[in-house]
Amino acid sequence: MKEKMESSNSSFKKLKKVIFENSQCKDDFKIASQEWKPIGFYTCDDHCACGHAILYISKIKNVNTEAVLKIGSTCIKKFGNEEVDHFHSYIMKTLSKPIYFGKYKGKTYFEILENDKNYLQWLVKQKWFKEKNSSVVFALSDVIDF
Question: How confident is the model at residue 61 (pLDDT cuts 50, 70, 90)?
């Protein structure tokens, strides 16, 4: 357990370093983290700005420097930016819900995204789906092109 905490602290130190390097504020993490806004979310094997391997990625952009970074779920929780945290949490919560119809009944949107992105691209274009699932369509708009 102690080893995991030390690894987490080390990752957070790396994240802070990258944030300071790409922000106007260079010495106060709370202020520097507020310079960032969410601009997207996607899933794939990638790496967070801290160096950890991640599957769920939030893209954030600094409003002052225009720098763009990829941040994973663990670092988002430590980031301290309410807008970024809310965006990430909303996407995660919405796409973790199961679908209740069709060939993927019982599967989450994340599971479908990993196996059949084309189905979701088709689904979000359907009028009946858009009318009943606007939050899912919004969440998927940051994950897939349609």
Answer: very high
